[in-house]
Fold this sequence. Notes:
Blueprint: E1 5-11, E2 15-22, E3 29-37, E4 44-49, E5 52-57, H1 65-76, E6 85-92, E7 103-104, H2 107-115, H3 124-137, E8 143-147, H4 157-160, H5 166-170, H6 180-187, E9 198-204, E10 208-214, E11 217-221, H7 242-249, H8 256-265, H9 268-273, H10 279-284, H11 288-312, E12 317-321, H12 322-327, H13 329-338, H14 348-353, E13 366-369, H15 374-387
Parallel strand pairs: 1-6, 6-8, 9-12, 12-13
Antiparallel strand pairs: 1-2, 2-3, 3-4, 4-5, 7-8, 9-10, 10-11
Helix pairs in contact: 1-3, 6-15, 11-13
Amino acid sequence: MTRDLILTFNAGSSTIKLGFYALEIAGPRPLASGVIDFRDEPFAVRLKREGEMLSGPISADPGDLTAVLNQAFAWLAGQFDLSRLAVIGHRVVHGGDVFKGPARITDRVIAQIDALARLAPLHQPQSLALIRVMRALYPDVPQTASFDTAFHATSPPLMRRFAIPRALYDQGIKRYGFHGLSYRYIAGQLGDLAPDAKVVAAHLGSGASLCAIRGGESIDSSMGFSTLDGIPMATRSGALDPGVILHLMGEMGHSLKQVETMLYRESGLLGVSGFEADSRELMASPRPEAAEAIDLFCLRIAGEVARLAASMGGIDAIVFTAGIGEHQPGIRARVAARLAWLGADLDPKANAAGLRRISTATSRVKLLVIPTDEESIIAREAASEGTGT
């Protein structure tokens, strides 16, 4: 039997993205993409294939991942010959210092991923659950893990340090960086720039970060030890004075769990606005709290661009990517306006049209919009690590 099908998983806190690829000598060729959104009503697995949208209903309890995937793959088996599966690749958010590249999944690798789950509590448990369920469903198909942190392994030690007792660095308390699969893809899409170009890529979605990329490698990133750091996100706080944590848990008597829930699920755009986490809804809202949340979001993005430019000793281009970065010209315009002093000159028409280059011909800093494709990186690494091709 020919095994020439690659399946990829990109698990978020409330969605599972799927990708199907043909395993070919020239590299994985995309066949279809899908999603299981646990917030959907009616609950279903949705598949886009050759421009056609297909949907397979799921009656299982969304809280029972095994039952959900059993039903989803019973339907998907009618769309693909799953006996041809060659490898299954997973996005895993945190690889710590253990994983500096993709890994073929074994019991030992699962244990190592599990040990890092406390550093990415929104994503790591979902990825682990997926890995375990898929091992049970397809025990003979090799599985691989692609780590978001691995791309940032090239960051110099100085960029990874916190100004805390030195011994803690050796115990793993350091800045790791995330969204590495997205940044690895973006780094491969910069062929029209000089090889040593200094680029800040802004991955702006419900989770959001920025990365300084020079010569195709990560130099610095806005996210640090956890996925909480950096700019405000949909429901995550971003960078916060540690004294606030001390005050919440000391004077105000909050428990660790209460603070964790607040910082991961009740802060960011939702926290500042008081009513909404979706930047699209906030941009359309007349409420002053909505405007303040968006203004703070854009201010912090612009400030992080400037900091990352300092890390590289200059800046040649800014790339907007991911859901907000690719599809919300209003956010891009506000960020660019705050960076005019840096030489960023936005072309309003190009921005509204969503062209690749949205800066003017005379802009000292190029402004680019590049759609990301994390799944293609997962597929490529799965083919390499899981099949040796």
